[in-house]
Structure formats: structure tokens, C-alpha cells
């Protein structure tokens, strides 16, 4: 008997623990008597939500939608299911949307929830379903809701997949009006219900994505080519944290990593398994928002080596610093050289600062002035050689000094740099020869040999090649001492004959 009682108590304990765990976690989880959700069309609706229950005499409640699109109802004492109607504006456009909660918990209101309610109710306008006073009709919508949701998700699967929310229930899944995931899809498409027809249009291109009857959504036409490309944007980690985490963890963020948050969701730690619909990107954004702000340490003030020297060294060493290194100073302290052991409290950084102060200031050598070769030549050479410089190299000049050629041994005090400067000055300026004038070498055209005979029967180019005529020459090959003749004439320079297509072998003559 005692064993049976203990067993029942253990079962009861486990049941209570499961109930307590179910209350933990974030993600907008609700208490037992609350219906809550988000009303949005991409941007949150600015307006109110009205909820009606399924009691014999239906009761209604209204509540305002907050700035993030959130709303909540205490449904204690009310009868499920609950049909809801949201009226508000977003982006300057008025909207009337509907949703249904089969019990307490999450029930979002958005364009797809509106479509699902219309399909489940079998009406062309979901507003008529909300206005229907018969609670049996509301219960019928609740019975048909799952099937209608499945049909909508199947028909719109390519569109939902483009935004990473394929298979995500637009009514019961966690939802944030942050222009991400499904909310981003509502930013980029327009869902219109009118006279029993549904039309989903790409806002940017105006192309129709889906078009059909609310009464037969499965047969609606679907144009995958019209699906918009999701506009990328950074996830709002703070908004996600407030939506999914703040309820349990509050503003005191724990600085958990994305890996730790993901692990807690997988293992359902504290009921966090309810957040299993969060994407990796959303978890990463939450982790970034939850990371504690690290205040960097204040920047350290550089040590004043001069002040330290004045305080610890000047009394013995005076202002004549010895330029010792930090190693030498520390060694003198360690060995108590000259009583410097009294400075053993100095840190390594302080010793290094003192060493930089005691380092002697090195004055850079003055920039060298280039030697004036002309002035040196005038001073040492002009007296004997005059201004007619002989263009000798530095090696030749130094050789003449070493051999005392012409008494140049007297210049033995000249440095190698001075000799080199004189040599650059004595280098003669080479003037290019003036090219000979045309006609100074031969007549124009030439009259030697057979020129007179050929000039009446052929052109200069026939024998001499391109660029030659009675008035022109080839500058690249002319006036170089070489007679230029084409290979086609069979010229033999040894016996001065040619043989070509004009005649056989003939001597050119003188």
C-alpha cells in the first residue's frame, strides 16, 4: 500500500514539474486564459482587435494594438473557439483582417490568417463570418481551420520557401513585425480578398503570383516566376529578444552564445523548446543583442621618463645623463651599484621610461655638399691645361698624379672624390656630326655606271627597294656607306653584275 502511495505521489510530482516547465521559455507563450498574437501586414497595424467567443450569447472584447503589433485578451470565463477582427492602418492604408483561436494561446492576425478564415468558413468575405451571430458557425470554422491552413500552405509553398517560412502556420507560429521572414513577405506582396477571389501580387513588379477562388484554393493558378526576391536586411536582435525572451529573462540579459541558446531550445531547457521555429539567423541576432556591453579599460597614461629621472636619478647623476640602457640601469639596481638598490621598487616600465630619457641626443651629420668639379679644375688644372680639357678619366688623372707626370704629383693631396669631380668636368662634350647634304656624295639621281640607262626604263625602288625615288631615300639605310640593293635583281657584288626578270646577266660597269 505504501509503495502504491509513493508511486502515485511520484507520478503527481512529475506531472506538476511538466506543467511548471511548460510555463517557461520565451516566444510569446501564453498563460492558460490568454489569447495573444501580432497584427501586422509587414508593418504593425495601428488600431484595435475585437474578439468574439462561441457561447450561446456571444461575448465580445476589444483591445488596442501596441506599437509592435502585439495584442492580448484575458478569455477567462469565455467559450472557445474565438474569432477575431483587427481594424487598423499601416503605411496609410486601412485594413480589416481576421483570425481564429481554437483556444487560449497564440493567434496572429495577418493577410494569410484572413485568407485561411475565409476558406475555413466557406465565405467570400471573412467579415461576414465574424458578423454571424450563430456560434455553431464559429465552431465550424474551428473544425475546418487545420484543413484550410494546410491548403493555403501547400498552394503558397514556393512563395513561403523563398522567405524561409515554408510550412510555417501564419496563425499559431511565433511572429514578429520586424520586416523579416514572413513579415518581410508581407512587405513585398499584397494579398487581396474581393468578391470571393484571392489575388497575391508582387508589389514591386505588379506581377500576379497567385489568383483564384477562395472556395477552391487548391485550383488557384500560381506563377512562380513572379515571386519577389527577398530584400536583405539586418535582423533586429533586440526586437526578437523582446518578443521571445524578455517574458522569462527580463532585461537582465545573460550574454549567452547562439550555440548555448540553440542547445537550450533543442533540449527544451525551461520550456525553451517552444522556440524551435526560430531560424539560425534569428538565434544569432538574439545572441548578439543579449551579449553584455563590455566597457574597454581606460587608456593608460604614458610614463613621464623625465619626471622619473628627476625624482630618482638627478640627485646623484645630475643633468649629465649617462645614456644607459634599461638593462644596464636594472643591472645596477640589482647589484646595488653606488647604492642604486634603493630603487628596487621601480617597475620595468618605469626603468624603461628613465632609459629613454637618459639616451643621448644624436645630432645627425650635416648633409654633404656636392663637390664642384669645375671649381676644382680651375683651381688645380687650368694653370697648365687651360680651358681645353682633355677628357681624361678619374683613373687616368690619378695615374698621372701617382707617376708625377708633368709634375702632377703636387696634386697628391686631392681625394678620390675630388679627382672624380674633376674628371666629370673634363669630359669633352661630343657634338654629333652634321649629316652631309643631299647631292654632296653623288648626283641626283646618280649618274655612275648604268644609272642613266636604267633611269629611263625603271624606278629607283625596282633595284634599291621601298623608300627610294629620284626625290626620296630610306633614312634608316641611306648614308651609311652600304649600297642597298634588293635581292630580286640577283646582284653579285664581287663581279658587279646582276641578273633579273628584265635581262640576263649583265655587268653594271663603273
UniProtKB/TrEMBL annotation:
Transmembrane region(s): none
GO molecular function, a single term: heme binding
InterPro entries: Cyt_c-like_dom (IPR009056), Cyt_c-like_dom_sf (IPR036909), Cytochrome_c-type_DH (IPR051459), Multihaem_cyt_sf (IPR036280)
Keywords: Heme, Iron, Lipoprotein, Metal-binding
Pfam families the UniProt entry points to: Cytochrome_CBB3
Location of the Cytochrome c domain: 236-288
SUPFAM superfamilies xref list: Cytochrome c, Multiheme cytochromes
Name by which UniProt lists this protein: Lipoprotein cytochrome c
Amino acid at each position: 500500500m505504501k509503495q502504491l502511495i509513493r508511486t502515485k505521489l511520484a507520478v503527481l510530482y512529475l506531472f506538476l514539474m511538466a506543467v511548471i516547465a511548460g510555463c517557461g521559455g520565451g516566444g510569446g507563450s501564453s498563460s492558460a486564459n490568454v489569447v495573444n498574437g501580432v497584427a501586422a501586414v509587414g508593418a504593425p497595424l495601428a488600431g484595435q482587435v475585437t474578439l468574439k467567443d462561441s457561447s450561446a450569447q456571444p461575448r465580445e472584447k476589444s483591445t488596442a494594438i501596441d506599437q509592435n503589433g502585439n495584442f492580448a485578451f484575458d478569455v477567462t470565463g469565455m467559450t472557445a473557439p474565438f474569432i477575431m477582427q483587427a481594424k487598423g492602418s499601416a503605411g496609410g492604408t486601412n485594413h480589416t483582417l481576421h483570425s481564429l483561436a481554437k483556444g487560449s494561446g497564440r493567434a496572429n492576425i495577418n493577410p494569410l490568417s484572413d485568407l485561411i478564415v475565409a476558406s475555413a468558413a466557406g465565405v467570400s468575405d471573412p467579415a461576414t463570418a465574424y458578423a454571424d451571430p450563430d456560434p455553431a458557425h464559429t465552431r465550424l470554422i474551428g473544425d475546418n481551420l487545420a484543413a484550410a491552413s494546410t491548403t493555403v500552405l501547400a498552394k503558397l509553398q514556393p512563395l513561403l520557401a523563398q522567405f524561409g517560412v515554408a510550412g510555417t502556420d501564419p496563425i499559431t507560429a511565433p511572429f514578429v513585425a520586424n520586416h523579416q521572414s514572413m513579415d518581410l513577405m508581407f512587405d513585398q506582396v499584397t494579398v487581396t480578398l474581393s468578391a470571393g477571389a484571392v489575388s497575391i501580387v508582387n508589389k514591386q513588379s505588379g506581377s500576379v503570383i497567385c489568383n483564384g477562388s477562395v472556395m477552391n484554393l487548391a485550383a488557384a493558378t500560381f506563377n512562380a516566376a513572379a515571386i519577389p526576391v527577398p530584400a536583405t536586411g539586418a535582423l533586429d536582435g533586440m526586437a526578437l529578444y523582446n518578443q521571445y525572451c524578455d517574458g522569462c529573462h527580463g532585461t537582465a540579459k545573460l550574454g549567452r552564445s547562439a550555440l548555448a541558446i540553440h542547445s537550450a531550445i533543442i533540449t527544451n531547457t525551461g520550456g525553451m523548446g517552444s522556440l524551435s521555429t526560430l531560424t539560425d539567423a534569428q538565434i544569432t541576432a538574439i545572441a548578439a543583442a543579449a551579449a553584455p556591453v563590455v566597457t574597454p579599460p581606460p587608456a593608460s597614461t604614458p610614463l613621464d621618463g623625465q619626471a622619473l629621472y628627476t625624482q630618482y636619478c638627478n640627485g646623484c647623476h645630475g643633468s649629465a645623463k649617462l645614456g644607459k640602457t634599461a638593462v644596464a640601469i636594472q643591472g645596477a639596481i640589482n647589484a646595488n651599484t653606488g647604492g642604486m638598490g634603493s630603487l628596487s621598487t621601480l617597475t620595468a616600465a618605469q626603468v624603461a621610461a628613465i632609459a629613454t630619457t637618459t639616451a643621448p641626443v644624436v645630432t645627425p651629420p650635416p648633409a654633404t655638399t656636392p663637390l664642384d668639379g669645375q671649381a676644382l679644375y680651375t683651381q688645380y688644372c687650368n694653370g697648365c691645361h687651360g680651358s681645353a680639357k682633355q677628357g681624361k678619366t678619374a683613373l687616368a688623372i690619378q695615374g698621372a698624379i701617382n707617376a708625377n707626370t708633368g709634375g702632377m704629383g703636387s696634386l697628391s693631396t686631392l681625394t678620390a672624390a675630388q679627382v672624380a669631380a674633376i674628371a666629370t668636368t673634363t669630359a669633352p662634350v661630343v657634338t654629333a656630326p652634321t649629316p652631309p647634304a643631299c647631292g654632296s656624295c653623288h648626283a641626283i639621281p646618280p649618274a655612275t655606271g648604268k644609272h642613266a640607262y636604267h633611269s629611263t626604263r625603271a624606278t629607283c625602288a625596282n633595284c634599291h627597294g621601298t623608300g627610294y625615288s629620284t626625290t626620296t631615300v630610306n633614312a634608316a639605310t641611306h648614308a651609311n656607306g652600304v649600297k642597298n640593293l634588293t635581292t630580286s635583281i640577283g646582284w653579285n657584288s664581287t663581279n658587279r653584275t646582276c641578273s633579273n626578270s628584265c635581262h640576263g646577266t649583265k655587268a653594271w660597269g663603273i
